[in-house]
């Protein structure tokens, strides 16, 4: 004998389930009326009771699959800096991903990179980005920067792929030298937008490695910046002003002895946007640390600078030849003697010959503003 159900005795889930099912049945049957009317129909009582029991069981099972209140739900989100972090505030640990090839890129022919003997993890990053062959600036920079480990002054027009010309050597050396404590590469760029752009490219390239990169720019809250630095990144991409402030105040940046790469991107704009003083202070701090294997890569859209007049009586903007300008950049960047200059803006599209820089100047800043 089936017991009759009085809906007023039902609570919570059971009542909700009963009401939902009853409503569904009404619309299916074409009947109209509220819950009370349905319950007042004696002919349907037995059928309803049976269905109610089934429904209550169904709903209980459904709810048991949902996480209980208080369960920790880890969600990943990305903010405008492409900064992925857990909702809990803890950094997402970066690790080597399994070597499963994405079916969409698995068949890409990557053989054009073989001349550079890239580590598989780095090649995998390039594959994921679908960069199947180097651009001309990359093709010219990589042998010097990677195979000969030379310092570099490179110029090529905007959009020519300069970013990967310095990201690939950095990623390769990181993988080759393995995991170590401390900052391994610093990339300075003149604007927040450029920093974010470079950071995103570098992050993609490092995806299959154990190394991480963070952006350091003005406008990020102190709390967030600290959280990013707590990841102890191997690579930092920064505007000079913000990096200088952190350099003074951050424990992680006190030991720069592991710094193998210093990159200055768009050095021409760096001079024009008034970042030069901070950049010079950062570089002099780094250069005070002896590290023979440290490489400096300097890039610019052009090696022909706009002349900047100086506002001091008796001083006019100096007219410099292109070679003199190159020499100045080599000195500002602190490039070693056996550096290489590559200028793809030249009409012939061939690199300039090797230039050894030696300048006699007492006040570097004074010289720069005369460029
Ligand atoms: N090897 C490659 N194959 C295909 N695309 C590439 C390759 N290298 C870079 N790119 C793409 O070319 C575009 C320009 O690259 P990048 O931003 O590095 O140029 P850039 O010279 O640094 O320009 P900018 O001066 O604007 O920063 C980007 O969209 C980048 O994703």
Automatic annotation (TrEMBL):
Cited function: RNA helicase.
UniProt family annotation: Belongs to the DEAD box helicase family.
Keyword ATP-binding part of the UniProt annotation: yes
Stretches with biased composition (Acidic residues): 25-38
Segments forming domain DEAD-box RNA helicase Q: 111-139
PROSITE patterns, per the entry: HELICASE_ATP_BIND_1 (PS51192), Q_MOTIF (PS51195)
Phylogenetic lineage: Eukaryota, Metazoa, Ecdysozoa, Nematoda, Chromadorea
Protein's recorded name: ATP-dependent RNA helicase
């Amino acid at each position: 004998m089936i017991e009759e159900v009085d809906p007023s005795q039902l609570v919570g889930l059971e009542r909700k389930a009963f009401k939902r099912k009853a409503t569904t049945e009404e619309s299916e049957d074409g009947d109209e009326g509220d819950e009370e009317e349905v319950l007042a129909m004696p002919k349907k009582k037995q059928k309803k009771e049976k269905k109610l029991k089934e429904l209550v069981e169904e709903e209980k099972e459904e709810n048991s699959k949902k996480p209980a209140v208080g369960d920790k739900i880890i969600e990943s989100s990305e903010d405008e800096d492409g900064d992925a972090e857990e909702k809990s505030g803890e950094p997402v640990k970066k690790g080597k991903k399994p070597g499963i090839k994405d079916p969409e890129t698995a068949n890409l022919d990557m053989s054009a990179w073989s001349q550079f003997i890239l580590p598989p993890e780095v090649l995998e990053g390039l594959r994921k980005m679908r960069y199947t062959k180097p651009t001309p600036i990359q093709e010219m920079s990589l042998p010097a920067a990677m195979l000969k480990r030379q310092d570099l002054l490179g110029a090529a027009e905007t959009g020519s792929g300069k970013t990967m010309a310095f990201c690939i050597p950095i990623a390769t050396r990181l993988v080759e030298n393995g995991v170590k404590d401390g900052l391994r590469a610093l990339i300075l760029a003149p604007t927040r937008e450029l920093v974010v752009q470079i950071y995103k490219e570098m992050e993609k390239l490092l995806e299959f490695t154990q190394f991480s990169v963070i952006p350091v720019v003005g406008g990020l809250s102190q709390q967030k910046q600290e959280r990013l630095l707590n990841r102890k990144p191997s690579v930092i991409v920064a505007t000079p002003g913000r990096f200088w402030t952190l350099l003074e105040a951050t424990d992680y940046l006190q030991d720069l002895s592991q710094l193998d790469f210093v990159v200055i991107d768009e050095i021409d704009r760096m001079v024009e946007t008034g970042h030069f003083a901070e950049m010079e202070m950062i570089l002099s701090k780094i250069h005070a640390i002896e590290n023979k294997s440290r490489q400096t890569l300097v890039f610019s859209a052009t090696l022909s600078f706009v002349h900047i007049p100086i506002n001091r009586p008796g001083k006019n903007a100096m007219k410099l030849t292109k070679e003199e300008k190159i020499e100045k950049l080599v000195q500002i960047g602190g490039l070693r003697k056996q550096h290489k200059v590559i200028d793809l803006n030249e009409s012939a599209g061939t690199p300039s010959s090797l230039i050894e820089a030696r300048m006699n100047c007492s006040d570097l800043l004074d010289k720069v503003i005369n460029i």
